[in-house]
Each structure stands twice: as C-alpha cells, then as structure tokens.
Amino acid sequence: MEVSSENFWRQLPKILLSIAKSRYIAIDVEMTGIMDKGSENRHDNLTNQQTYESAKNIASKFNVFELGITCVEKLSADGTYKTETYSFTVSPYLHTETRADETFVKGLDRSLSVSYNTLKFLRSEGIRLEKIFEDCVPYLSREEARLATRQMERRQEPWDARDHGYNEHDECLTTFSIYAHNTIVRELVPQMGCRLWNHGTTVIISQRDDGQEAKRRESLEDDLNASLSKYTGIRLIIEALVGGKFADLINPDLIVEAMSGWPGEAHAFCREVHDFIHPTSSEQSEGPSEGEVADRYCHLCCTSHDPGTGCLSTGRPGTDSSPLHNVRSQTTDTQGAHSASHSGGSSSSLEGVADGEGEKGDTGTRHIMAGTSSWYDSWYEPTFRDDLCQDLEELSTETLKNEVADALKELEDFVRRYEPIIIGHNQFMDLLFLYNTFIDDLPDTLDEFRVKIHKLFPFIIDTKLLAINDDTIEGEDPLMDLYNRFDGNRTQPSIHWDAAYGYGRRGTAHQAGFDSHMTAAVFLRIAYKLAREELARLEGRGVSYESKVKRLYDREWLSAVGYDSQFLGYPQDFHVNTRRDYNAREEHVGRLSWRMKIFDGIRNRVRIAPRKTIHVGRDY
After folding, report:
1. What's the number of CA atoms in the CB half-sphere (13 Å) around residue 242?
2. Four-point Cα dihedral 300, 304, 306, 311, nearest 10
3. What is the mean pLDDT of residues 574-602?
4. Rg (alpha carbons) of the chain, rounded to whole number
5. Architecture of domain 1-136+232-242+419-543+593-620 in CATH?
6. How would you label 30-63 residue by residue, b for 16+ Cβ within 10 Å and e otherwise?
7. What span, in angstroms and rounded, lies between the C-alpha atoms of 317 and 307?
8. CA distance linking residue 152 with residue 390, whole number of Å
9. Is the pLDDT of residue 42 over 70?
10. How far apart are CA 197 and CA 525, in angstroms?
11. pLDDT tens digits for 317-346?
12. Torsion angle, CA of 124/128/132/134, rounded to 10 degrees?
C-alpha cells in the first residue's frame, strides 16, 4: 500500500492495528546516498568505532527518501502467515498553509543531500527521486519536536529590556540605556509591556494587558499543537514500532474526517481494536492450537513458562488469551481524555518520548482494574453487546472522536508492552538512518549507539546473517536473488496478503515497500527451513553427506563450472532452477520463537562490514 498525504489519516488506524497484531515486522529504508569520499578511501582494517564514525557521517549527511514496513501476522498453527506492506515516500519538505505553519517550519534547519552515484543508480532502476516533492507524508523527529516546543516557550516569555543586542558604548546608547532602565523598566514594569518590533530596530512601549498576554500565550501553544499534529506524520509509525507514545500526538478529528467518506469505517476500527484487546469469553475458553502449545518461551522475561502463569522475572500476571501470552489490558484513560490534550492541554506531552523516558520497560502490573469509565468496559457484559453495536452506529461525531482516541490509547498501551521482533536485511545503515531521521542526532560512539538502538528495538534479526547461517549465500547475494530462490521453490510457510497490501512479482527491487516484503518472506522461509532441519536433527534424521553436496549444487557458480549433476544422482533432464529444496518437506515445525536454536549467534546482531558483526543486545 502506497501511503501518501491523501490517504495517510485513513490508513493510519489500520497500520497501527497491524503493528499491534504482528509478531514480526520487516523494515527497509532507501537513502539518497550510502557512501562518501571518506568511506570510499577508507582502509580495510578499520576498528568498529571507525566503521561506525564513517557510517554516522553518511547517515547525518544524506536523507531517507523511502520507508517500507511489512507486518507479519500468523493466521493459523499450520504455518500460514498474512503480510501487510506499507510504503512511504519520505521528504524533508513540509507544506505550509498558514502563517503559523511558516513560523514553525522556519525554525527547522533541514537540508537535502543526494549522492550523484545514487542518483544514477536510482535512474537506472526506474525509481523517481523527484517524487519527494509531491504529496509525501510529513515527519518530525523527536528532537525537532522538542526544538519546536522550546522555541514556542521562548516566544511565550516576556522580553527583558536588559537583554537587548546592542553594543551601548559603540552606538552611543549608554545615556538612553540608563534612562530606559531607571525610568521605564524599574518604575513602569510590570505595569508596562515591552516588545521588539520591525526586527528590533524600534522599541514599542505599551500598557500590559494580562488577559491579552494570556490569550497570546494560549494562541502560541495552540499553533504549536496544530503544527505538531499536522507534521508528525511518519514518526507516529516509528513510535508504534519502538513502543513509544503516539496516541496524544494524533488528532482524532483528522481520522474521523478522513473516514467520513466510508460510513461505518471508524466504528469498525473501534470494534476491531476492542475485539483484539478484549477477546470474547468464547475465544478465551478455546484451547491453544498445536503450534501454540510448543511455544512457551517468553521474550519479555526470557524464560519458558505456561502462557497462563505470567512472567516470573517481571512479576507480570498472565491471563487466558492474547497474541503473545494471551494477555489483555483494560484501557487506562477515561473517555474523552485524549480530546482534552488537543484543546488546551500542555504541549509538553507532544514532544515525543525521549530515550528511556516514560513507561517503557515498566515492570509493574499490567492490569488497572478500577477507575476506568471507557465505553469498552461495558463490552465485558455479553448481554449488552448487540445493543452496543447498534448504539455505536448512532454515535455523534464528537463522541466518535472520543472513541477513536480511546482505541488509539489502548493500542498504544498494548504496543508499549509487546514490542515486535524487527527484521531487516543488512540493516546496520537502515538503523542509523532511522535513528538520525526520526529520533535524534546520532551519538558519537558505537557503544552509545548500541545502547540507544537496543532501547528502541530490543529484538532484532538480520536476514543476511540468517542466510549466511543457512549457507544459502556466502555473504553478498542480493535480496532479490534470495527471494526468487525461495519463492521459486514454493517453500513453506504459506504467505498471503490482501489486495493492495502485497506485491507478488509486481514489485521492483530497491523500492522500500517491496524490499521489506521480500525481507519478510525470506525470513519466514529460511527460518522454517532451519527449524525443519533442527527438528530432523533432534529426531536423529540428520542430513546426509550426499544431501549436503546436493545443497552446494544450488549455488550458481558450481553450475557455471559444468559440474555433472548425474554424479549426484539427479535425473538426466534435471535443471538446477527447477529442483525443490532437498529439505522442503511440508513438515509442521510449530510457532517460530525468539529463543529458538536457529537464531543462536545472530540474535540482536547486525553486520557492519564484510565478516564483521556487532551485538546490540544487553550482553555485549
């Protein structure tokens, strides 16, 4: 799905819900440059810190121009997955409509830098870089939001006459300055207000009006909130991915207005969120599927336990049903609380969540059982469900906005507890660009970066390393080759997508959306292949020497040297591109788990250079 400024607010609820439902999310970033003169001339024997510094310079110089995410949701225990792919064109340009917008944008110092080699490459691939000047979804980083808030606060403060920028002695203003301070400032302030006008060349003295001053401050804050809501854009998606706060950054009016052309869509979103967060009693009573029984590892507390017993190391209780532990939570905000934040609440909540700030990583209880007055509470009474469904259709627009806000808040609470496993392909540069574009300036040292990126993405798997582990590639095969290899073999698991949310073979490599789709497919199929091999090993059905040699024959370089396929027992008409993978049995391997042995050695590791990887988890 191509997401633009035209459909962003309508698609946003679906994207956030898809993120909440997904166990794995593949991310890809396309940049306007990936090398500079310094990196081209660098030596091969760089330290990890030197490699990071070179990559940091590149990420700080060039821009992200496309972001693709593919959400992966398991549909059933038989190995069927559903993917939803979203592609965003990322542009530093911010469209302005009002004077307040102009003031806001003027305070941001943005630049656009494009590598000539990248420009040539994109042109050869048929990718139009100029689309960044079209109807792109805007974005603000956390740092830009904080900067805008500080600028607004400075504008709210009254001007101190002693803080003028003149050199009194050089401009012969000493006498006037003494008079201004002794006569005007000391005797008339605070009864008088003083402000600069016409770029500071004239000082206008006027009677202070406390009521007018309060209105001015309120107007400045309203303008800031409106601009933040308008321009935050793509960062809302990033906040959902990293378990940050996004609900208060969203103006529900924009969502309800965007969905107004499709009657019932906003109501359906609220109901779907409710059904996901609070499953019905009949769903709770159903036993776990065969695949769910085998998956008792909790990536939150890093222990194996029954889903109903809760997390032992964190003290978090378990319940009977949830996507990742069968845990659900009631809403923590009363109805309409979100709307208040858009109509006079403090702007401090709009700055975004700084690293390690807020409730992320909270080890307290997951349930707030009392003090809530959300309309969701009534859904716990099954006898009222039919009546409430009818009542929802008759909600006023204002009430609907409040319910959308409550649904967003519940999604936020959920993703802050259950962060997905992030999948990328050779993703070191992707992580650098994501951090620099949507979070903050990159830190100076590699160790600092590893700490900060781990706080944002606690669970990372790189498909490049996964493929190397599998001996599928030797290290430099393009992602498209891997995708075609496994897709051509029709390898399990089965992957489906709804119309407009997938690619099939219609995508173009180096488009972020399609690359994220390929990354998700390659991850699932290599992981299942390795899981089948591990299962066979545990059952004493190890791979024979002959099978290992046959796997080597899959590599095109063996075919190129004219190796005789009949020597390996293949039929005379055998062709390397038509043979199914030797281990592609339709064998059930259960649910993929973060702590499965197949991920040993690559869990939370990223590749920063050929034959060089670093760990970004807790144990480095």
Report:
1. 28
2. -30
3. 66
4. 28
5. 2-Layer Sandwich (3.30)
6. bbbbbebeeeeeeeeebeeeebbbbbbebbebbb
7. 10
8. 45
9. no
10. 66
11. 343 333 333 333 333 443 444 444 444 444
12. 170
Which of 24-38, 235-249, 410-424, 547-561 has the lowest average pLDDT?
547-561
C-alpha distances in angstroms, 146 versus 153, 351, 607?
A: 11, 5, 32
* CB atoms closer than 10 angstroms to residue 420: 24
Task: Quickly state the pLDDT bin for 125 (edges 50, 70, 90).
Answer: confident
Q: What percent of the chain has pLDDT over 70?
A: 61
For all residues of the chain together, what is the average pLDDT? Answer: 74
Report the distance separating Cα 459 and Cα 599, nearest Å. 12
**3-state SS record for 354-399:** CCCCCCCCCCCCCCCCCCCCCHHHHHHCHHHHHHHHHHHCCCCHHH
CB neighbour list of residue 504: distance below 8 Å, 6 or more residues apart:
none
Indicate the helix (H) or strand (E) that contains 429: helix 428-438
pLDDT score recorded for residue 464? 92
The pLDDT, as a whole number, for residue 482 is 87
Residue type (1 letter), 273: V
Q: Residues in the chain, how many? A: 620
For the chain, give every residue range classified as CATH 3.30.420.10: 1-136+232-242+419-543+593-620
Among candidate residues 471, 495, 498, 497, the one with its CA nearest the CA of residue 482? 471
For residue 525 the two structure tokens come to 């199929």
User: Which phi and psi angles does 311 have, rounded to 5°?
Assistant: -85, 120
- pLDDT at position 538 is 80
> Residue 250 in 3-state DSSP?
coil
pLDDT at 167: 61
**Residue 572 class from Cβ within 10 Å (0-12 exposed, 13-18 middle, 19+ buried)?**
exposed
CA separation, residue 587 to residues 1, 235, 331, 528, 615 (Å): 32, 40, 41, 9, 32
**177: how many CB neighbours lie within 10 A of its CB?**
16
Tokens coding 231: 């321009």
Q: Are 378 and 176 in contact (CB under 8 A)?
A: no
Strands 460-462, 421-424: pairing is parallel
Contact 594, 297 (CB under 8 A): yes
Dist. CA 515–CA 521, nearest whole Å:
10
Asked if 252 contacts 408 with a C-beta cutoff of 8 angstroms, the reply is yes
d(CA 596, CA 534): 10
Tell me the mean pLDDT in the region 164-179.
Answer: 60
Measured between alpha carbons, how far is 272 from 278 in angstroms, rounded to an integer?
A: 10
Taking the CA atoms of residue 89, residue 93, residue 95 and residue 101 in that order, the dihedral angle to the nearest 10 degrees is 130
CB neighbours of residue 1 within 10 Å: 18
Mean pLDDT for 293-316 is: 43
- Please tell me the pTM assigned to this model: 0.72
Nearest to 414 by CA among 464, 467, 456, 359: 359
Query: Alpha-carbon distance 437 to 431, whole Å?
Result: 10
